[in-house]
Design brief:
hydrolase activity; AB_hydrolase_fold; 336 residues; AB_hydrolase_1; alpha/beta; Pheophorbidase; 13% strand; 9-stranded mixed sheet
């Protein structure tokens, strides 16, 4: 049913490839099993490479026409579209929102480009723009987590950028942007230096966990890095396996990335932004959260009882409810 509905939805747009589960050649050795009413689609980019899209249509009453903006979800490092499909896609589709979770190139079931890294801020944002331009009928809300949040920041900074339009294509307008435990506009270098001087043990653990990828083999370290202490070990183990398989290549060359930062300020002040952080975030500290809020002139919302992977954590509903409330205010024009 979901495959038919997405085909009908995109009648006037560029068609996405809908591949039956039985014939998918999974790139992840531990493939993510979709939930009921979800479809795995593939959007072909101008390069010919295909991006995985997990889609879940918003539920509406009979004969009701949705006025809700579509939601497009962008993951961070060591994740893919599945991290949104677990809880957030069912939650927001239940509230009437069409939901699209993308796997960036080289991640999840998406194709991998040639080279050592998956891309840059510019290329990842350009791929997202191509998807929105060709597949989405209404201005969407773009939601990004961690380094995915930094990609969203670059995207919104370049809406209406004519010079970029000439090189990469227009970044379509958005209804809004949601930054979830996002890397701040200046990047993660400030966080790293603060941790080195104020929390050297935490700095060592984060470096070992992420740079050395020790989270892939140490369940306690994976749990401490991404999840709350109350998270059940068997659930963490499942996510650990999925994260290990999600990134076949790094999202960025971090040296080149840091040299390109900070992201430019917003050119269009009409774009509404909400900044969410997690009280128990082991990766993005409070100053990083404050930096992002100050940059966009909004008061950041810090969610108690959740860690960095807010959308997967035990109390994921807390963040989802805050976002839903903001979306409801956005429709009524009541956001900051």
């Amino acid at each position: 049913m979901a495959a038919l509905s997405i085909t009908n939805l995109l009648t006037n747009r560029t068609r996405m490839t809908i591949v039956p589960r039985a014939v998918i050649k999974y790139k992840m050795q531990v493939p993510y099993e979709l939930k009921q009413s979800q479809s795995r689609l593939f959007h072909e980019l101008p390069s010919g490479l295909k991006m995985e899209v997990i889609f879940q249509k918003g539920r509406l009453d009979q004969d009701e026409k949705s006025q809700n903006p579509p939601l497009v979800f962008i993951h961070g490092s060591f994740h893919a579209a599945w991290c949104w499909a677990e809880h957030f896609l069912p939650f927001f589709s239940q509230h009437g929102y069409d939901c699209y979770a993308l796997s960036l190139l080289g991640q999840g079931e998406s194709d991998a480009p040639s080279g050592a890294v998956a891309g840059s801020l510019q290329t990842h944002a350009g791929d997202i723009a191509d998807f929105i331009r060709k597949q989405i009928n209404l201005p969407p809300v773009l939601l990004g987590h961690s380094f995915g949040g930094l990609i969203v920041q670059y995207y919104i900074a370049n809406i209406g950028n004519e010079k970029l339009h000439e090189k990469e294509g227009l970044h379509p307008y958005l209804a809004g942007a949601v930054l979830v435990c996002s890397v701040p506009p200046s990047g993660n270098s400030g966080i790293v230096w603060r941790y080195l001087f104020s929390k050297p043990i935490a700095a060592f653990k984060i470096t070992r966990s992420l740079a050395a990828k020790a989270f892939q083999t140490s369940l306690p370290l994976c749990k401490e890095t991404f999840f709350s202490a109350e998270m059940e070990n068997q659930v963490v183990l499942r996510y650990q396996k999925l994260m290990t398989e999600s990134s076949r290549m790094p999202l960025f060359d971090l040296r080149k990335l840091n040299a390109s930062l900070p992201v430019p300020p917003l050119k269009d002040s009409s774009i509404k932004v909400i900044v969410l952080g997690a009280h128990d975030d082991f990766i993005v500290d409070g100053k990083g959260l404050s930096e992002t809020g100050t940059f966009y002139a909004v008061s950041p919302v810090c969610i108690e009882g959740v860690a960095h992977d807010m959308m997967l954590d035990r109390s994921w509903e807390k963040g989802a409810q805050v976002i839903l409330s903001w979306l409801n205010h956005l429709k009524r024009g009541e956001t900051e």
